[in-house]
Amino acid sequence: MNAVYRTWPSLLSAALCAFGAWACESPKPPPEPAAQPTEVVMLSDDEEEPVHDGRWVYEGNCAGCHNENGDGQGPTMLALGLKARSFAQGGFAFGNTREAIFRTISAGMPGSSVMPSFKATLTDDERWLVVDYVLTLCPRVDEKASGTALTVRDRPQIARGLLPAVVDGQPEWPRGILIGTPEGLTFEYRTDDVRLLAVRQGDFADRTDWNERGGGELVPLGKAFFTIGGGNPDAPISILRTGTIRPGRAQLRATIATKDEVGLDYDIYDSSDKRAAIVKERVRVEALPLGGVFTRSWEIRGDREANNLIIDVGAPAGDCEWVRGVPETWQQIGQLFRTPVRQDGWIVAKRGDVFECVHVAADKNTWLVKDSNSVRLYVPVFAGAEHVGAKVSATIVMTTDWSEELLAELGKEIAR
Ligand code: HEC
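That is the input. Now the predicted structure with heme C docked in place:
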């Protein structure tokens, strides 16, 4: 096979790294009150003393929010209509090594989070004890992970922090998110205006230069095989209104990283700061015997009339040769696009040796627009006064070897 057919190592390793049974063990019953001997054999005669272990610290200080089993749905959180971090899902933003968790507990979480600092209320010893207890509620941590290296095991991981420039000479991003998937791809987002910067393949990330409030530099370790806008992309979602296209401003609402769903929820604001749309953007790694095949999808709900959106799917752009996908049907949407549009199918462009193949699947209201240098989706979220909403997805394949047969094969896989 051609060089592009890499094996898909991480799928295998994900399957092999069986989720340690102890990791998802159901919670033990709460400890009996003091002086009540448990099955733990007391070595000395101080049976009168309560057992000041990690679980005791946890139940007294953390379970109200994180719940006894660590699922993040403790009574305090439920009362606030919120959820704390679920330990069972892993994926700590600030790292899952003992040191990282210790720092999180000591410093609390930066930003608007309600996760408090325990520096004043718990001693160092108590904090270390509770760290070890929290780890028993988490998916198993890679034993090799030490210091600041973050690894992804069997669930997606999210890490936030200062991201170095994707390409030399481009800006660094003080607020960034890395989403690492068990399949070995990492999605690198700038989060102040929700923009996908790059997709990487390889190890996850190294957190250097830690400081107590978080925000140390987060160095993604994988190789960027897909970069948008040279590492400094334009706003990916624009608003089309009365004949004018203006970039929308995105504001992050939530990050999602579960076994089934990975991505970001955000709102799009127009130039007068009115909310125009609510977006769920998801990423998925396709389990295909090719390196680097992934799908981005957007589920969009319009919030105001006459907001039609244009999504730049981020590929391909600039000096490339269009190989496939100039559609048979030419349509014109208003006076704006004197360009080909269609609802789904493949577009293939070639840049240097690499073919960038984009498969777009859109629902019936949505149109794919290929202009001279990018692939965009025209997404009406209102038709007249009627809200229509939209769901679109784009699967991106980077390969040095392109053929119609390959596309046909991929098409079948993606349709599954
Ligand atoms: C008042 C509620 C509350 C209490 C009490 C609380 N937490 Fe949290 N904790 C949260 C919330 C909410 C988050 C998620 C914050 C976010 O994602 O912005 C969180 C997140 C965390 C994280 C994940 C940090 C990361 O890197 O993603 C850890 C670890 C943690 N808490 C440990 C603890 C421990 C240990 C205790 C007790 C010593 C504790 N928490 C007490 C609310 C609480």
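The chain has seven helices and 24 strands.
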